[in-house]
Design a protein that fits this description.
single chain; 965 residues; alpha+beta; Rossmann fold; 34 helices; 25 strands; binds S-adenosylmethionine
Length: 965
């Protein structure tokens, strides 16, 4: 049995000739969601996820489901789909979904590996068998007029979708705008299946490059001192104190490897005569020392001079760095000792001399002086390296890093000649490309942006947070060393490649294009594609091109004559990139802000991409989009582009695809669930009947479809967050909207999809309140109180996106902007709405009673009032009185205002207790008020309400997720 939610119940009336597809029916979403999360375990990643950094890669099971669901006919059973996806143990042919769910729910009893517990290996390690492929192809040919359907991914990124498509041996086309992932696509989709294993050859050339480069680099690492080889150096900056001229290191903390709270290895600075020297110390909890490694010189971005105590403010430090008024300083070194293990020591003069040698080398070599001298493009979104004086890409390296990358590039170029002579063109191309990936991957952990991970005592990668953050402490690796440089990185890349070869064995290569998805038809042909399965960029979630430039300039230095078509421009193509990039509109603001301009630009580009996909699809072709964005704006854009391109929206499915607690996702707009949204190209062009539908006529259908979808989702047992439930209900709403398009209001003005989405949000909020709020009389509360409670209910935290909060307000008749000033019920926090508590809203009763002047602008709720305009004001006041004056005074306060019999007060209290997390201070005080003397007075029975549904769920979910971390 499947457990999916779908919007398609009947075939579209005007296009009843095309075959409905599996994705338009029920799907085994729960089992696939479980597999997606299993794949998120960093210890068990598929090879293409770590062959080279790229952003927003999707899990294999989600990609498989999107592909198979888009090409197989409706009626394909959940078991057929799952076993083709290699989910479930051998021999189990029925009820696979139930089996997977049972394994998941009993996972607490597991000892042994995940594979042993589930009884089958991770699906990405398994390709379909030849028999499975033969059966699949026979049935696909029946569905698609005798041919195998061609699958196109127009924004292919790291290539998960097209790679899975070739594993099912389907004709596959992958397109990507950015050359950096395009190089990865070449490796995965062309060389792996076509050229095959190159293990011996890759190692042979890798070793030659290593030998040549290390001969040039040996003197830059005082490597063999004491027989110990430098692996990585922890580097910082020394600036001069403006006041005492002493040397100031820019150190937030002195830990090199912090094993636990007070234990680990740290560098202890010694300050003398305006100078600083370093000592490596091993600290244990019993260490008798007044040295606290957590106390560096930098606090909240300001720097305190350790010699004279004068503070240099952040802006001043930044100026010094920008003007090059600093020295690089190696303060710690991780080394390898051939006599046993690795260890740490302090940086010293020998290390500094090595840095100096690198600097001199640069100055004496013209080629080095111009290596990677492409300009860093300014960005307002990512921390701009130019702010710190890194104006050319070469500046993101310290001199030794730059020389090291340069020497590897030189060694590669020297070998390239020989490689070309020894191999046929395709093999040579593959070897050169894979070896370039190894070199490019190295910069992730070897630049001024690569942080030192004190938890592991080890270099970390630069894109942990999807931006080029400046690091006061960074790592400088010895690329020549066996474990921290080229040898190890290239071994990993070669291993990845060989795994990919195995996975793609016997399959045909895909066609790979590097270009704008809005300009594809000329390459792939009109009407030539049956299934477009895409995972487009999500607004401003990731600035792919800006992030890619560092890799791009290095890859260009290696590969511009191997793939000249990829490296034609100075930097990556930002003007065609479909992201909302405000920095492109810097200085162009007029009537519209740069944010608005960026938004419109993104929308236009997405619309162009969807109409291009429409052109490439044959009539009846399918488009499945993976969409991972919560904001209504994004959905508005997406739906409008699809409708305008001519697509009929036929299905949506929510699928758990990401680890919700991943650092990068936290606080960003990316959801934990991905929505699969499916549209079809009609068999016949829709006739323009010229008629428009009145919004009033479709509004109630929109609402009831959304409610129906939400109820089904809540009953389905899929563990979706409440916001994801709202998003998942957008699908049916959009179908109604698209079927009736264009939709106009009474004045004849066109209604945008966002109005339908708003109506859906509102309707689903009602369903959620109906499900999760037992409190009777909630609907009779005033709008402001309802909004406050619903916000807590849906977002499960005090902070939520402004736009969503605003729309939720409209649903209950409250304009949140109008009430902000007078009620102080919310405030802005980094563009989000933050709900306020009593302490931010209620005047101090003691001061009011003493006749002191208390700002009613700052604190609008006066607790001495007899009556309150909003239920939430009365409750916040009661909490304040209880906390300030104690239970006796609170008892009097409540009885003076007759709150014992006040239904509105009672309802607000119980509703709040239902939605607030147990540990929230308001919930704690409310529980106190409901016990003891005040409790006797109020006599509010809360025994029937489920006070901690959310808390318990969260703990369970968290425990389950932590298992996968
Ligand atoms: C969400 S990512 C795709 C990730 C991919 N599905 C994976 O799992 O690795 C979106 C991709 O769209 C690419 N992109 C942005 N604008 C584009 C355009 N106009 N044409 C083609 N690709 C574009 C970005 O470079 C990025 O790699």
């Amino acid at each position: 049995m499947s457990d999916s939610h779908t919007t398609s119940e009947t075939e579209p009336e005007s296009d009843d000739e095309y075959t409905s597809l599996a994705i338009e029916g029920e799907l085994p979403l729960k089992a696939v969601g479980i597999e997606n999360l299993k794949e998120a375990n960093p210890k068990h990643m598929p090879p293409h996820r770590y062959i080279h950094p790229w952003f927003a890669r999707r899990p294999t099971p989600a990609a498989r489901l999107a592909i198979l669901g888009s090409v197989m006919e409706e009626g394909t059973s959940a078991d057929e789909l799952l076993s083709l996806m290699q989910i479930g143990p051998d021999g189990l042919e029925e009820n696979i979904s139930e089996y997977v769910q049972e394994r998941k729910t009993t996972e607490g009893q597991r000892d042994g590996t995940l594979g042993e517990w589930y009884g089958y290996p991770r699906p990405f390690t398994q390709s379909p068998t030849e028999d499975e492929l033969a059966d699949l192809h026979t049935s696909l040919r029946e569905t698609w007029d005798g041919e195998l359907p061609t699958v196109l991914d127009a924004t292919a990124g790291g290539g998960v979708i097209p790679f899975e498509s070739i594993r099912y041996d389907l004709p596959t086309i992958a397109n990507e705008l950015n050359p950096v992932p395009s190089v990865i696509l070449k490796v995965m989709l062309e060389y792996a299946p076509e050229v095959g294993s190159l293990e011996d050859d890759l190692y042979k050339w890798r070793d030659r490059i290593q030998k040549k480069a290390s001969e040039e680099l040996d003197d830059l690492y005082p490597t063999k001192r004491d027989g110990r080889e430098v692996l990585a150096s922890a580097c910082t900056y020394h600036i001069q104190c403006e006041s005492c001229a002493g040397t100031v290191p820019l150190m937030p903390k002195w830990w090199l490897h912090k094993r636990s709270a007070g234990e680990g290895v740290a560098i202890k600075p010694h300050y003398e005569n305006g100078d600083v020297s370093y000592e490596c110390v091993e600290l244990t909890e019993n260490s008798n020392t007044d040295f606290d490694p957590s106390e560096g010189t930098v606090s909240r971005s300001d720097v305190e001079c350790p010699h004279c105590g004068v503070i240099t403010e952040y802006e001043e430090t930044r100026e010094l760095l920008k003007n090059g008024e600093f020295e690089y300083q190696i303060y710690g070194v991780k080394y390898d000792d051939p006599r046993g293990g690795s260890g740490y020591r302090a940086g010293d003069d020998l290390d500094q001399q090595a840095l100096k040698r690198a600097e001199e080398r640069i100055e004496s070599d013209f080629e080095l002086l111009t290596f990677l001298s492409e300009k860093v493009e300014v960005s307002s979104r990512i921390t701009d390296p130019a702010t710190y004086g890194m104006e050319e890409w070469r500046d993101i390296f310290n001199p030794r890093q730059l020389v090291s990358h340069y020497e590897y590039c030189n060694a590669f170029r020297e070998c390239a000649e020989e490689i070309r002579e020894e191999y046929d063109t395709r093999e040579a191309e593959a070897i050169l490309t894979i070896l370039t990936i190894s070199a490019s991957k190295m910069i992730d952990r070897n630049s001024r942006m690569s942080p030192w991970d004190t938890g592991r005592g080890y270099p970390a990668n630069m894109f942990m947070s999807h931006n080029y953050s400046f690091r006061r402490v960074f790592c400088d690796n010895n690329l020549v060393s066996e474990t921290m440089g080229y040898e190890d990185t290239s071994r990993k890349v070669i291993d990845c490649y060989e795994e990919l070869v195995e996975m793609a064995a016997g399959r045909d290569a895909a066609e790979v294009y590097c270009g704008d998805a809005a300009d594809l038809t000329s390459k792939v042909g009109e009407g030539s594609v049956q299934a477009a399965v895409v995972d487009p960029p999500y607004y401003d979630s990731v600035m792919y091109a800006q992030l890619a430039d560092g890799f791009y300039v290095l890859q260009k230095a290696y590969l511009s004559d191997v793939h000249p078509e990829f490296f034609t421009s100075e930097l990556t193509n930002k003007s065609d990139e479909a992201v909302a990039n405000t920095s492109r509109f810097e200085g162009l603001e007029g009537e519209k802000s740069k944010k608005q301009l960026a938004k419109e630009d993104y929308e236009e580009k997405m619309a162009e991409i969807f109409s291009e996909l429409y052109e490439t699809l044959e009539p009846g072709g399918v488009l499945t989009i993976m969409f991972t964005h919560k904001e209504t704006d994004a959905w508005d854009t997406l739906s409008m582009s699809l409708i305008e391109a001519g697509f009929t929206i036929t299905a949506t499915h929510p699928i758990t695809s990401e680890m919700p607690n991943r650092v990068v996702m936290r606080g960003s707009q990316s959801a934990d669930s991905t929505i699969l949204l499916t549209g079809r190209k009609p068999l016949h062009e829709k006739e323009d009947t010229g008629g428009a539908t009145l919004w009033d006529d479709v509004k109630s259908e929109t609402r009831s479809e959304a409610k129906k979808a939400a109820r089904e989702l809540l009953d389905s047992g899929l563990s979706l967050t409440k916001t994801d439930t709202i998003i998942a209900a957008f699908g049916p709403t959009l179908r109604v909207f698209a079927d009736n398009y264009p939709v106009v209001d009474k004045k004849g003005e066109e209604v945008p999809p966002r109005d339908a989405l708003s109506a859906a949000r509102d309707a689903v909020a009602e369903v959620l309140a109906e499900r999760y709020l037992d409190t009777k009389g909630f609907d009779d509360l005033d709008g402001l109180t309802r909004w406050y409670v619903l916000s807590w209910l849906i977002y499960e935290t005090d902070t939520m996106p402004y736009d969503e909060a605003r729309q939720l307000g409209i649903g209950v008749g409250v304009n949140i902007d109008d009430v902000k000033r007078d009620t102080k019920i919310w405030g802005k926090s980094s563009g989000d709405v933050q709900l306020k508590t009593h302490s931010n809203r209620v005047q101090d009763i003691v001061r009011v009673e003493n006749g002191e002047d208390v700002s009613s602008r700052k604190y609008p709720v006066n607790p001495t009032d007899e009556r309150f305009s909003h239920g939430i004001d009365a409750v916040h006041s009661a909490i304040h009185v209880y906390e300030t004056k104690g239970p006796e005074a609170a008892w009097e306060w409540l009885s003076d205002r007759g709150l014992k019999n006040d239904e509105r007060f009672r309802t607000t209290v119980t509703a709040l207790l239902e939605v607030l997390p147990q540990e929230h201070e308001t919930a704690e005080t409310l529980r106190d008020i409901l016990s003891g003397r005040t409790g006797e007075y109020l006599d509010i029975d809360i025994s029937n309400i489920n006070l901690n549904v959310r808390g318990e769920d969260d703990e369970d979910n968290q425990a389950a997720l932590n298992e996968f971390e």
